[in-house]
Amino acid sequence: MTKEDVQEPASEGDTLLNGQRSVSPDLERPVVHQVASAPMPADSEFSFFDPNDPKCQDILFDPDTTISELFAVLRQWVPQVQQNISVIGNEILKRGCQANDRDGLTDMTLLHYTCKAGAPGIGDAGTAASFASQLISMGADPNLRSRWTNMNALHYAAYFDVPELICVVLKSSRTGEVDATCSDFDFGTALHISASNLCLSAVKCLLEHGANPVFRVSNGERVFYCMRITIIIK
C-alpha cells in the first residue's frame, strides 16, 4: 500500500531538495527523499526502466540522476528492475543515501525494497539476500516500519514469500521480533501474513525460526488455522 497522492515527504528526519542533502548538524541522521518520477530515455520503446538497456544504463550510472529518481525506479514492479536490486541499490548508495533513508512516496527504506525484490517469479532471492546483508552491515535497521503499511523488513519478506530474506533479517533482529505484529494485517505476525497469503516457504522458514503458531490476532483468528488452509491448498 502506498499513498500515491503524497506531494511532500514525511517530516521525520531531514529532507532532500532537488535530490541534494539539506544542511544538517547530524549527517548520520536518516532523511526522507522527495518524490520524483522514474527517469526514462526520451525515445524509449518501453514503459518501464530496464537496467539491461544501454540507454537506461546511461541514466542509471549518470551521477546527475538523483536518489529520488532511482527510488522511483525501484517502485516499478517488473523483473528487469527487481532482479537488479543490487545494481540499482548500490547506485543509490553511491549518491550519498544512507542505509535507513526513506523513499518519500512509500516511506520504505532500501532494506524494505530489497525484501520485496526477492519475490518468486519476479525477483532474485539470492541477489536480494546478498544485498540485504550488505545493507545490514552498513547499519540498516530491520525493525524500521513504513508509515503507510506499518510493515517492517520481516513482514515484507513474509508477504512476498522469500525465506532467504527472512533468514537474513531475523539473524540481525532483536529476540522476539519473529512475532512482531502489523496493524495492517489485523495485528498479525509475519507467520500470519505469510500463511494468509499462501506463502508456504515463508511459513516453514518462520516456524523453523520459532514463530508462534497459535498467536491470536485482533479478529480472534489464530495463525495455525491459516496455516492449515495454506497446507491443504498447496
UniProtKB/TrEMBL annotation:
InterPro entries: Ankyrin_rpt, Ankyrin_rpt-contain_sf, Cul2-RING_E3_ligase_SR. It comes from Erpetoichthys calabaricus. Pfam families: Ank_2. The lineage of its organism: Eukaryota, Metazoa, Chordata, Craniata, Vertebrata. Residues 1-28 are annotated as: Disordered. This is Uncharacterized protein. SUPFAM superfamilies: Ankyrin repeat. Coiled coil: none annotated. PANTHER family: ANKYRIN REPEAT FAMILY PROTEIN (PTHR46224:SF6).
